[in-house]
Amino acid sequence: MIKYYSINHLFLILIFFILLSSIALSGSLYSSTNSYYITPDYGLQCSPISITRTIQAGQSNSTNITVWEANQSYDQTYYANFSSSSGAPGNWTNFTNDSILVPNYPITNYITVNISVPSGTTTGIYNGTIFVNSSDPSRGNCTIALNVTVCVENWSCTDWSACVGSVQTRTCTDLNECGTEVNKPSESQSCAVTPPGGGPVGGWITPICGNDVCEWGESSENCPEDCPPSISPEAPIVLDIDIGIESGSEQVLAGQRVYATINLQKAGGPTGPTDVNLTYLIRDPEGRTIDYKKTTIAVETIRRDIYFLSVTPGSSLGVYNFEASVAYNDIIDTSSATFQVVAEIPKALIVIKSIDVPLMFEGDRNSIIIVLENQIENSLNVNVSIFFPEKFEPKEVNKSAVIGALSEEVFIFIATPMVSGSFNGFILIKYDGRGLTRDFPINVYPSIVKWGWIVIIVLLIIILIVVYRRKRIKHYHELTLRRLRVLRRRRRR
Asked: What predicted TM-score, i.e. pTM, was given to this entire model?
């Protein structure tokens, strides 16, 4: 009997440790910094956590905020309201349903936000905050940042062309490059040419359709063979690049990274995303290139990304240039910004204790956990922005908090990757007139990989159960044989 229980216990312990190691493996997959994957398991949840829209003056836009409860066991009522220090877009914003009922988890409901920009609004960026609160204060609240870019179209058109095939054309360009065509003037119009000889009385000959000559009285409608439809020429592409050094990188030590935001705008040219060549580099005070990168990115209208380069260890002190250029065929635009390499940097008041980034799967909601520490004996107002790659939703999230003296604060950012691959995210921290920027790696795997791990673990458990049962059957068989031998010996006696 001792052997029987020992075998059973051995296999039970083996299965336990395999399951435990599987859980540990899963934990390591979900964290690249030996931490653990955290999903908010209580309270109010909202998506998206930031809304960014570009709207023409006099136009409107609407979007939905999805609301749900984590581990909710009873219905909850939620209310939405808006806050804006500048009054805009607060007075542009209204809610179709500012009060909603969310049934038990995991059912969701949504609040519709309508944004109507008044006519005559000047071009600019207007910010505000949407708050979603629960009827039960213990369930918490959601804060959604609203960023509205207002652009007033300013169209400039060329003169009308000669009348060809009863059609005149012209090219119109938006000087403000809004990327919208709400008030775009017409680029074609019908026209008529006075017939030679002054008309039929003057000896005008009836036009013949099909003679490859677009004669008076013929048009693309009544004779497309002779007068093919006019095709408006594509507006030439216009590229604009602007670069700015991020907070915390205005002064760096030799050997450190320098972070810069590069804004790209495209107008005209092919519709939809256009691949352009982006080159960025660092030059030292003598004009020598000390770091250099080149990449191809897709730009549809406006794109904003953070990039970094490194100052070579041992570089001399002084003012350096961070330069960038964008090119499409023979269209090129450049921009630059300066930063300093110094011998010493003042001690940071806020430090990043940890950045926990899970190994993500495409299409899944994931949490990035950032822990900040206040290293002084006074409270600090801190704003944390996280920038995700282009194929993430959302692409940018902002949060604010007051960190107490000598205390830590945890920030949780949720994002959904739409494609698999290896990417870089960026964290921008601003406090007390200072800044701090850091990058972090993001690995996104196809969703099939996640299911592959689950299948492997399940198969392993099945194999262990089969082996355990075979051992047990063999043990019972051996025990039965022993009993038979004992009975035979007794009978012989």
From this structure: 0.44
Per-residue confidence (pLDDT) for residue 105, from 0 to 100: 52
Strand order of the β-sheet with 366-374 is 350-356, 366-374, 408-417, 392-393
Residues ≥6 apart with Cβ < 8 Å to 140: 43, 44, 134
User: Which tokens sit at 218?
Assistant: 């013929």
Given 96, 119, 151, the domain boundary residue is: 151
Picking from 305, 247, 311, the residue whose alpha carbon sits closest to that of residue 425 is: 305
Distance (Å, whole) CA 127 – CA 250? 26
- Taking Cα atoms as reference points, which of 435, 369, 349, 457 lies closest to residue 25? 457
Residues in the chain: 493
- Going by C-alpha positions, the residue among 99, 182, 91, 106 that lies closest to residue 133 is 99
What is the mean pLDDT of the segment spanning 58-76? 71
pLDDT at 383: 92
Whole-angstrom distance, CA of residue 130 vs CA of residue 65: 10
Alpha helices in 226-284 (DSSP H): none
User: What's the Cα-to-Cα distance from 348 to each of 112, 206, 253, 432, 434, rounded to whole Å?
Assistant: 42, 87, 14, 11, 9
Q: How many domains does the chain have?
A: 5
Residue with tokens 């693309």: 220
- Both structure tokens of 467: 């082996």
Question: Degrees (nearest 5) of the Cα angle 301, 303, 307?
Answer: 155
Q: For residue 367, is it within any domain? A: yes
